[in-house]
Write a structure and sequence with these properties.
The chain has 316 residues and is mostly helical. The protein has a single domain (13-315), classed as Up-down Bundle (Rhopdopsin 7-helix transmembrane proteins). Helix content is 74%, strand content 3%. A three-stranded mixed sheet has the order 2-1-3. The longest helix has 34 residues, at 96-129. It is globular, with a radius of gyration of 22 Å.
Length: 316
């Protein structure tokens, strides 16, 4: 056998290619990604802070939004530092333990995000279809249970897939044409049979996508049917305006996941896979706070007050 099978605890190294095929773009890419990452961190921390400060925002919708911001912040922080490091250092290697750890946290964030978006769709369904019972139906206890459930399920899925990865044997040194420890990239470095692990990721992805999308689709179908029956002029437009940021976030999340795992499988699409992964892990977490904040009067008013208070305190 060309590759020597070794125990996974004895110094396996993965070498990422990243964007090394474009040496002249390393510095510009580093600057661009650093700016995006910085903006993402500030935006998501800002959303969490604003929601905590303003008592008017202590509602189920903003409670879920704060957790979405936390997940976005966590996910981009799992991916971005290593990507930035690859662009400015010659050492492009990562240990097996480091790679497995990155995969675990990234997987937990992605799964949790998909179900947080589903929970937010259910929240919009209750708010629009049963407005008089909204406070009772979406109690603080239920909201806490829903969020806790999404985190636990994300952690369980990540733990299960990580367990399958740890059961494989890996070659001593493998070059991976990527910049992060994505599941299929790790499997490509395995020297033992990975068919069971491939089946596991397929089944878990299918289950998660089916369940989360089913909740979202059913919620919005009922919302649409309810709204078109309302005789009030402009009710449909108001409902669509309220749900537009959430629908956009859903489109980004599920559209990119389906694109990565269903469409982009050929070797000729590896560059596109990396670009789409950058968009999903860095650009989308940067856009989500903007989408939810630009049309939100309460958030904009709170931000203006904070800026005004800071300006006044500096001028005194």
């Amino acid at each position: 056998m060309a590759w020597k099978l070794i125990n996974q605890s004895t110094g396996v190294l993965f070498v990422f290619l990243g964007f090394s095929e474009y040496p002249n773009l390393q510095v510009p890419l580093f600057i661009m990604f650093l700016i995006i990452y910085t903006i993402t961190v500030l935006e998501n921390l800002g959303v969490i802070l604003v929601i905590r400060i303003n008592a008017k925002l202590h509602t189920p919708m903003y409670f879920f939004l704060s957790h979405l911001s936390f997940i976005d912040l966590s996910y981009t922080t799992v991916i971005a530092p290593k990507l930035l490091d690859l662009l400015i250092t010659e050492d492009r290697s990562i240990s097996l333990k480091g790679c497995i750890a990155q995969f675990f946290f990234a997987c937990a964030c992605v799964v949790t995000q998909t179900f947080i978006l589903a929970v937010m769709a259910y929240d919009r369904f209750v708010a629009i279809c049963n407005p008089l019972l909204y406070r009772v139906a979406m109690s603080q206890r239920l909201c806490g249970l829903l969020v806790t459930g999404t985190y636990l399920w994300g952690s369980l899925c990540a733990t299960t897939l990580t367990y399958f990865l740890l059961g494989l044997s890996y070659c001593r040194s493998v070059t991976i044409n990527h910049f992060c420890c994505e599941y299929s990239a790790i499997l490509s470095a395995a020297c033992s049979d990975s068919s069971f692990s491939q089946m596991a990721i397929l089944l878990i992805c299918m289950f998660n996508e089916t369940c989360s999308l089913l909740i979202i689709i059913v919620s919005y179908v009922v919302i649409f049917i309810t709204v078109i029956k309302i005789p009030t002029k402009g009710a449909l437009q108001k409902a669509l305006s309220t749900c537009a940021p959430h629908l956009t976030a859903i489109s980004f999340c599920h559209g990119i996941i389906l694109l990565l795992y269903c469409a982009l499988k050929s070797k000729g699409s590896l560059l596109l896979v990396k670009i789409v992964t950058v968009f999903y892990s860095m650009v989308v977490p940067m856009l989500n706070p903007l989408m939810y904040s630009l049309r939100n009067k309460e958030i904009k008013e709170t931000v203006k007050k904070l800026i005004h208070i800071k300006f006044v305190s500096h001028s005194l």
